[in-house]
Amino acid sequence: MSRRRAGRLPLNADINVVSLIDVMMLLMVIFMITAPMMQGGVDIQLPQAQARPLESKNGLVVTIDRGGNILVDENKLRYDEFRASFKALAAQRGHGGIYLRADKGVPYGTVVQVLAIMRAAGVGDVGLVAEPEAITR
What we know:
Layout: H1 2-7, H2 18-38, E1 48-49, E2 60-64, E3 70-72, E4 75-77, H3 79-93, E5 98-102, H4 108-120, E6 127-128, E7 131-132
Parallel strand pairs: 1-7, 2-5, 5-6
Antiparallel strand pairs: 2-3, 3-4
Helix pairs in contact: 3-4
């Protein structure tokens, strides 16, 4: 019986993970390249204020860009469409809060008109999103 075992190779219980590491590294590189491309958004410059910044994680975000366009969660709406549909949008998705982001170059009258539509829809609390002020010393 010992003669039979002498001719065989010993058993190796190690797992070869080199190919798994190669695949994991390739996937990581792919995700690192594509992740910045997937981050969309509206290009606006928020005004600076001496306040604690609001984080709009789960709420409904209304944005007014430089051109006066109204966007609801990156969906562009005309003023009359926004007026007609905001009450339904607020009832459907406004449970996490409603946040208003406006570019600092937008006229004050446009911001007031959008706020008036929100108030007419029954929204009592609207978070005004701003950038924190730079501390200079």
